[in-house]
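May I ask you to review the protein record following this short note?
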Amino acid sequence: MNEKALEVLQIIEGDGRVTIQTLAKMVDLTEEEVKNILKKLEDEKVILSYSAVIDWSKVETQEGVTAVIDVKVTPQRGVGFDEVAERIYRFPEVKALYLMSGAYDLSVVIEGNSMSQIARFVSEKLSTIDTVISTTTHFQLKKYKHDGVVFDQGEEDHRIVVTP
């Protein structure tokens, strides 16, 4: 990967909405060259998706509950943790899954409408997987920072107002 492609990645990671025109100026390339870099990075699965960071606490009907679940598993011969990880990440509630070092093996981030919905996920889906030894569930109480974005910075109001 060349230096310009790396620059493009760093910029769009911070702001996925930056225009091709602005991006081209920032990296001193033509718009066509930037389009080609982005296409190549997408084709090579370096860029997996573009997303927005949403403060759901400001959307009354959509707040929900987020939990981080520490999972201890028995790794399987020949596949290690990959097979159980694949079974877990296929559940639609699972938003992120990480192999960890330390006291537990996997860290699962899930979202639900209520604590009881998350409890049902853990007891009915996650804990019933035969290689899962134990789980510890942590409920997110407040989000201060996510993907480099600081939430609720006091006086400043970062809401987007859409007028008809």
Summary: The helical segments are 3-14, 20-27, 31-43, 82-89, 115-126.
